[in-house]
TrEMBL record:
Gene Ontology MF term list: oxidoreductase activity
Alphabetical UniProt keywords: Oxidoreductase
PROSITE patterns recorded: D_2_HYDROXYACID_DH_1
Domain D-isomer specific 2-hydroxyacid dehydrogenase catalytic: start-end pairs: 6-318
Organism this protein belongs to: Paenibacillus solisilvae
Segments forming domain D-isomer specific 2-hydroxyacid dehydrogenase NAD-binding: 108-287
A Pfam family matched in the record: 2-Hacid_dh_C
InterPro entries noted in UniProt: D-isomer_2-hydroxyacid_DH, D-isomer_2_OHA_DH_cat_dom, D-isomer_DH_CS1, D-isomer_DH_NAD-bd, NAD(P)-bd_dom_sf
Coiled coil start-end: none
CDD domains recorded: GDH
Entry protein name: 2-hydroxyacid dehydrogenase
EC id: 1.1.1.-
Stated family: Belongs to the D-isomer specific 2-hydroxyacid dehydrogenase family.
Length: 322
């Protein structure tokens, strides 16, 4: 008998067709949330789940007694409760690599737009505020030949370092749990302590996965270590930062600006002060959001799932569960 899988969101037709070749399945292919009774019914039968960002914890697993594998269409898997999944022997897979270059592009969009104030000045022109004699009030800061400190030098970090070094002649530094010789040799990335990186970087970029060790890694003390002219970029997860401390640092001029793709709560609270600050660029968590990359991610997640539920070893089992 074919394994039964549940797909909890719309996915590209090719990814669905691939799953259909190998599994019995059902799909929630609507944008509105799944009603709890439908989810409950699906989970009671499913051997596999294709998802993105759904919390997989012990209460979820209790409702899914036959579940053998969860495949997430994301590189981040902080929504996997590793202890609970280990205890139940449920495999978890993610989608690394296929999104590296796309996320790196988006990080540069945040760096450039926060340094040169492009969203703010776009609004300025469209609101009819552009006048002859405008000069210093339109100034930004240079990205080229500045310094970029990358916190979390994984594969996406390396794609960013490559752009920084060869595209913008930036000095790259990084901190990471382990040294990345490739980044050091190819992009001249200098390994530093977090404190040293914070004190010396023009752009401080947070790229680390969210783990118990990195939760709220950047807070009031860390913002105070940064240059007053520093621009803080976050493309990791909102919970790696103390958002209240970030708001305070921006309001008090402890740092110059921020470019944010991720937030503590997503979608962000419409009353957040971050939405009213001209020196903050805000994006709706779109690091990997291009049609081609999301397609590649969905195909990879579908392959991971099929391999896992048919008793084979998928290439992208997350490290803690492999
Ligand atoms: C991921 O895949 O985890 C990223 O957050 C996508 O933007």
């Amino acid at each position: 008998m074919k394994p039964y899988v549940f797909i909890d969101r719309p996915i590209p037709a090719e990814a669905e067709a691939y799953i259909a070749e190998h599994c019995a399945y059902s799909i929630w292919d609507r944008k509105d949330p799944i009603p709890p009774d439908v989810l409950q019914e699906e989970l009671s039968q499913a051997n596999g789940l294709l998802t993105s960002g759904r919390k997989i914890d012990s209460s979820f697993l209790e409702a899914a007694p036959r579940l053998r594998a969860v495949s997430t269409i994301s590189v981040g898997y902080n929504h996997f409760d590793i202890t609970a999944m280990k205890a139940r022997g449920v495999i978890g897979t993610n989608t690394p690599d296929v999104l590296n270059e796309t996320v790196a592009d988006l990080v540069f969009a945040l760096i450039l737009s926060s340094a040169r104030r492009t969203p703010e000045l776009d609004r300025y022109v469209k609101d009819g505020l552009w006048k002859p004699g405008d000069n210093e009030n339109l100034f930004g800061i240079d990205v080229h030949h500045s310094s970029l400190g990358i916190i979390g030098m994984g594969r996406i970090g390396e794609a960013i370092a490559r752009r920084a070094k060869f595209g913008f002649s930036m000095e790259v530094s990084y901190c990471n749990r382990s040294r990345r010789e490739h980044a050091e040799q190819q992009y001249g990335a200098v390994y530093m302590t977090l404190e040293e990186l914070l004190r010396t970087s023009d752009f401080v970029l947070l790229m680390t996965p969210l783990t118990p060790e990195t939760a709220r890694l950047i807070g009031r003390d860390q913002f105070r270590m940064m240059k007053k002219t520093a621009i803080f970029i976050n493309a990791s997860r909102g919970q790696t930062v103390d958002e209240t401390a970030l708001i305070e640092a921006l309001q008090e001029g402890t740092i110059r600006a921020a470019g944010l793709d991720v937030f503590d709560r997503e979608p962000i609270d419409p009353d957040s002060p971050l939405l009213r600050m001209p020196n903050v660029v805000t994006l709706p968590h779109i690091g990997s959001a291009t049609a081609r990359t999301r397609y590649e991610m969905a195909m990879l997640a579908a392959r991971n799932l099929v391999l896992a539920v048919t008793g084979q070893t998928p290439p992208n089992v997350v490290a803690e569960l492999s």
